[in-house]
Amino acid sequence: MYKIALCDDEAFQSTKLEKMIEVHLSEQNIEFEIDIYEQGESLLRAIKQQTTVYQIIFLDIEMSGINGIETAKKIREHDEHVLLNYITSYDKYSLASFEVSPFRYLLKPIEKQKINFLLDSAIEKINLGNHYLFFKSNRRQYQLCHDQIIMISSEKGRQIRIELTSEEQDIVFYGKIKELEQTLNLLIFVKVNHGTIINMNCIKSVEDQLIHLINGKSVSISRGKRKQFSEAYNHFIERSIGI
């Protein structure tokens, strides 16, 4: 499911854009949720408080209170991956608007063809980047950015535990680690034993067949996974340093 936020102090504009998005994504059989905010302040509060993250955000540049550019800068402090889209009545953009690496600009009045093209491009980019893990626990839908995850482990063959980079409590839910593994970005995550998947960004050091993680925990590499881990980790390091 894709989480989308619209932030515009003109309710008519938000309603119109919401309808365009609903029609196009429904035609594509894509699951989504849309939240609407009338002020940058309220959007920022929601981003700070919620456990899920938005993947696509539309910001009106000319808003009362905190304008779209300042809102975008503060959003980037919490999320580097969300696709930010500016909505504006002008076709000239200030240099400040480029600081947050916006995905697209939309000129008012918004045209159906342009919003459809933007949505298709955004979803393709999200899928290629695969920055998110989706799962359901106790009837609650979670959407975690890969940067938030240190390790995923199976407990008793029935439960999955997700350990987070923040100080928040681990997330535990019923599921199969094999099914979860299929949804992960294998350029970042690697399975090191039968029931453990780690985020290679969170490795502090590797000593013999033991992996030390940034949260102080250590995980052993099983005999059957040693070659796979070695190849995956070497490729990860090469990509990280640009080789």
From TrEMBL:
Q: Which residues carry this modification: 4-aspartylphosphate?
A: 60
| Pfam families per record | LytTR, Response_reg
Give the UniProt keywords, A-Z. Answer: DNA-binding, Phosphoprotein
Which Gene3D superfamilies does the entry link to?
A: 3.40.50.2300, LytTr DNA-binding domain
- Which InterPro entries does the record match to this protein? CheY-like_superfamily, LytR-like, LytTR_DNA-bd_dom, Sig_transdc_resp-reg_receiver
Question: Hey, what's the signal peptide range on this chain?
Answer: none
Coiled coil ranges (UniProt) are: none
- What are the residue boundaries of the Response regulatory domain, all occurrences included? 3-123
Outline the extent of the HTH LytTR-type domain.
Answer: 133-235
Query: Which SMART domains is this protein grouped with?
Result: LytTR, REC
State if DNA-binding is listed as a keyword: yes
Q: Which GO terms describe its molecular function?
A: DNA binding
State the PANTHER family in the record. Answer: STAGE 0 SPORULATION PROTEIN A HOMOLOG (PTHR37299:SF1), TRANSCRIPTIONAL REGULATOR-RELATED (PTHR37299)
Name of the protein in its database record: DNA-binding response regulator
Identify the species of origin: Enterococcus wangshanyuanii
